[in-house]
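Structure first, sequence second, as always.
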């Protein structure tokens, strides 16, 4: 049994706490929502943990995570270990690790994949940090990862920052996969000869080279709404797709699929695209092609 402090009990953090408890570990959770929190403050959480402590942070990336790490740098003691399991940018990890190392506190960055289904199915974990810290936290990782061979749901990607870097690339790939499925869905919907689009996509789940968990989730969505017309075609991005493209540029790695998928998300947020208005105007100018005026 391992004792763990877990900060951030949102959609993923809450389910992680329950999965860890089901595996027999003691988890003391903190969240700003008192209805799900086990403690009233970070200080109280630290007081309830036996030394040397392990604390896992699952709060939004950026300033919320940075401030939480700063707070823990004052609350934790030499020999303790802090894990950032949020979607932080890998460049933040070196800063966090150096801040904590100055006080003898260990640091691991963990990319976590699995979403709301992780409690049942387990989480894919990508870890960055020292081997000794990884070994210390391994009972926690083993409880969270999917059943089966460790190497199929867990990876020690490298030094500090490598876990979040791996998760960033993972999410960039995810952008491209989702966009490909989405474009296939739209093409099937547009084809007059295809009578049952949901059945076609459901039939891809076994025996085809495009089968995947994402495809299963698309089938689930189509079971609930066969034409997906209850939704608006508006898609946000969490930032990791952008970071992936930045790194592709920095390393001179061509990434046309991921870039197209990210730009498609940008396009989804435009009610009226200035660029496409310019394209319509140009087609009208050089070829006399018809244009649709505002209000028509």
């Amino acid at each position: 049994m391992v004792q763990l402090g877990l900060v951030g009990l949102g959609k993923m953090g809450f389910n992680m706490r329950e999965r860890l408890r089901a595996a027999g570990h003691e988890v003391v959770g903190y969240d700003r929502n008192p209805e799900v929190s086990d403690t009233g403050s970070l200080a109280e959480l630290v007081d309830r943990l036996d030394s040397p402590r392990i604390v896992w942070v699952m709060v939004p990336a950026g300033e919320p995570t940075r401030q939480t790490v700063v707070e823990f740098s004052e609350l934790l003691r030499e020999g303790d270990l802090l894990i950032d399991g949020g979607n932080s940018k890998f460049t933040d990890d070196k800063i966090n690790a150096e801040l904590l190392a100055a006080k003898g506190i260990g640091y691991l960055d963990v990319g976590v994949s699995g979403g709301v289904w992780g409690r049942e199915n387990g989480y894919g974990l990508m870890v960055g940090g020292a081997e000794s810290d990884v070994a210390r936290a391994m009972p926690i990782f083993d409880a969270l990862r999917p059943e089966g061979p460790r190497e199929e749901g867990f990876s020690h990607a490298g030094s500090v920052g490598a876990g979040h870097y791996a998760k960033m690339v993972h999410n960039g790939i995810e952008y491209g996969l989702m966009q490909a499925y989405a474009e296939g869905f739209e093409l099937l919907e547009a084809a007059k000869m295809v009578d049952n689009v949901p059945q076609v996509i459901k039939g891809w789940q076994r025996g085809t080279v495009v089968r995947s968990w994402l495809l299963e989730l698309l089938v689930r969505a189509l079971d609930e709404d066969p034409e997906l017309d209850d939704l608006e075609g508006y898609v946000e991005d969490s930032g990791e797709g952008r970071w992936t493209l930045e790194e592709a540029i920095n390393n001179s790695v061509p990434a046309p699929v991921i870039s197209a998928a990210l730009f498609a998300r940008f396009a989804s947020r435009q009610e009226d695209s200035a660029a496409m208005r310019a394209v319509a105007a140009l087609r009208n100018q050089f070829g006399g092609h018809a244009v649709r005026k505002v209000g028509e």
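Margin note: The longest strand covers residues 106-113.
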